[in-house]
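User: Hi! I'm working on a homework problem where we have to compare a predicted structure to a textbook description. Could you give me the structure for the chain below?
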Amino acid sequence: MTRVNNDNRLAKRLNAEKRFQFYCISAIAFSLIFVVILFINIFSSGYSAFYKTVIEVDFDVTQIDEDIATLTDLEIRKLDIFRLSKKTIYSLYPDLDDRKSKKMLIKIFSIEYEDEIKSHLIKNKKNLSNIETILLTASDDVDQVKKGNYPRELSEDRRRIKDIQLSFYDDLEERGKVKYIFNIPFLTRGDSREPELAGVGGSLLGSFFTIITVLILSFPIGILSAIYLQEFAKSNRITDFIEININNLAAVPSIVFGLLGLGIILNVFEFPRSTPLVGGMVLALLTLPRIIIPTRAALRAVPPSIREGALAVGATKMQTVMHHVVPLAMPGALTGTIIGLAQALGETAPLLLIGMVAFVVDVPSSPLDASASLPVQVYLWAESAERGYVEKTSATIMLLLLFLILMNLTAVIIRRKFETKW
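Assistant: Happy to help. Predicted structure tokens:
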């Protein structure tokens, strides 16, 4: 009887263990399904932003009075070829006489068609032919038609692109004038009010300058603070108070740090608004607890025998810590730093409060230039009504996720490569 009861209890425990494993696997599978759905949704709506629609036109260089080969880039930029540019577009349909129809034809191109022609002349001024074939960026509406995102079946009064423009597009497509190329300006240009011209170049550099500022400020301060608190500071009320506040700061909402930056860094010290320098300073404060805490944990993980052995052979306290303990704890410290930087890269709320939400067209050249950042750019474009911004929002999220994945992967590689097993 006792043996039967024992067998029943053993069977119940085994069944309970199997149920627990099933619940755990189900939870992981459930999470992975949602992650996969998220990635598929973002990729499916964002990959097309890396391509753009262009229309091929033939530009008559001989109609320019100046010798292009002898002009500087700035002089070419100052050339007045607006009428000639429009004439080039009109040459697609030489028999088109109606003024309204000509206006509709012009509108299937981006508003910067003149600048694009000048850019082509600058790039090829040493080997220009009489007739140059130039690819001009199509308007956002035409681009969405090409990508299949525009509902052509709607009535004309319910869509921005008109029937005559669709007929122009269909005819140019049939003639092989419409091309689909990689959208390099998306990665190099700043923001724009026109979706087909907007890029993330400014946000990329803004995020880069911001993270570099965070690294320069938070890494040495965080590492040295952790070393002092863990290895040198005496245990008393002051150090206990500091440790409690460091742990509390790690859980403070990020928007509070934005209020701190707005109230002190901008209003008191009057640093320039909307700059990566200020954004980096605010995010450095946010990142410090996330560097100090894992660094102290890495220092505690070093066995006491390392310290005792170094002291036994005559090393001082400073030599023991800096020559033996810190090098062994550095992989953990670097891991915490990289994860902290990755979290700072994805922060939005603090940057909104210090003005990095401003519309900035120019690509920043230094941390003192006004700029946005990748998460703020997502915020800005997500509020825009144009369909072209939808794909650009998803594409920016893809870039942000890529950087976050690379940074976390770097942290894992560093930890596995340099971590010492005790």
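For your comparison, note the following. The mean pLDDT is 90. The chain has 17 helices and three strands. Good luck with the assignment!
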